[in-house]
Every structure is written in structure tokens, then in C-alpha cells.
Write a structure and sequence with these properties.
Structural class: mainly alpha
Largest sheet: none
Number of domains: 1
Keywords: Membrane, Transmembrane, Transmembrane helix
Number of strands: 0
Length: about 180
């Protein structure tokens, strides 16, 4: 409620960038196996490119998490739809992604592409965040549908099932 319009725009643009962040490495793997007769050096370059492009673009997910957290924490209602723990998860977990910024420098060790700080901790944190976010958002949808609402409106207007759509003289719905 009364959230600045830039916040959902940031979240949406981060989510859109995240889609390409996740599908881009898949395209790299598809190109890798397209011609299996390539030299091993080319195959190795493709796999290195795959791993780096999989974990290096963490800022898109960090931005999305921070936008979610800001939206939840700025909700002034006494009983907000989304619990504050959702915001805390979306602040703390993306910070675990930051060691991946150095994954392209060392070839071995905890910050390497397969190290604990660049791969295992960010990967586990991402899965944890995905599960918690999915559970919280599904719960919000379930509660609001039970209350007769269509969705959580982040702007000042509220839409609910009580509002009847009335067709105008052309048969179009005025409220649509």
C-alpha cells in the first residue's frame, strides 16, 4: 500500500533479468554439446563460460531480494500480508551471493568456481530463498483468495470480488 512505483518496477526488471541469467547458461551448454567433435580446449572454455555465467550475475537476484524486502518492510498495515521474516530472508540471503564476484580469479580454493564461498553457499542460499519466497507468496495468495480478494494491490486502489463489472453500451466492462 502506497508503495513508490519504482519498487515493483525494480523487482520486475530484476526478475526479467534473472530469467535470462538462468536461461543463458542453458544455451551455453546446448552450444557445447551441439558439436561433440570439438577440441577439448574449446569444450573446456565452454564449460568455464557456463559456470561463470551461472553464478557471476548475482546482482540481479540481490536487487530483486532487496526490492522485495523494502516493499515488505515499508508496509504500514498492522497485519501485513507478508511476514517480516520474508524481508529478512531477502536481505540476508542475497548477501551470501557476493563472494561469487571473485570466482573468475582463482582456479582452486573456497572462492573458485566450485568452491564453498562461490558455489556451495550461494547455491544453497538461493534454493533456501526460493523455497521460503515461494511458500510465503503461495500463502499470501491462499489467504487473500479466502478473504475474497483477487491479489495484493501494491498501489492505492483495491480490487475485490465485491466490485461488480458493469458493461457499457458497447458491451465492454467499465471496470476492466
Amino acid at each position: 500500500p502506497n508503495l513508490h512505483p519504482i519498487v515493483p518496477a525494480i523487482q520486475l526488471s530484476s526478475a526479467a533479468a534473472g530469467v535470462w541469467t538462468l536461461s543463458g547458461p542453458g544455451v551455453i551448454l546446448a552450444a557445447l554439446v551441439f558439436r561433440l567433435e570439438r577440441a577439448p580446449e574449446i569444450t573446456q572454455a565452454f564449460t568455464d563460460f557456463f559456470w561463470i555465467t551461472t553464478f557471476a550475475p548475482w546482482p540481479t537476484f540481490m536487487t530483486q531480494g532487496f526490492a522485495w524486502a523494502y516493499a515488505v518492510l515499508s508496509d504500514p498495515r498492522p497485519n501485513p500480508s507478508i511476514p517480516k521474516i520474508f524481508a529478512l530472508v531477502n536481505i540476508i540471503v542475497p548477501i551470501a551471493f557476493t563472494p561469487a564476484i571473485a570466482m573468475h580469479v582463482p582456479k582452486t580454493g573456497p572462492v573458485a568456481w566450485n568452491g564453498a564461498l562461490s558455489y556451495w553457499i550461494p547455491g544453497a542460499a538461493f534454493v533456501l530463498q526460493l523455497l521460503i519466497d515461494s511458500f510465503c507468496l503461495a500463502n499470501v495468495v491462499r489467504i487473500e483468495l479466502a478473504e475474497g480478494k483477487y491479489f495484493t494491490d501494491i498501489y492505492t486502489d483495491t480490487f475485490s470480488r465485491e466490485e461488480k463489472e458493469t458493461p457499457d453500451q458497447n458491451g465492454l466492462h467499465a471496470n476492466a
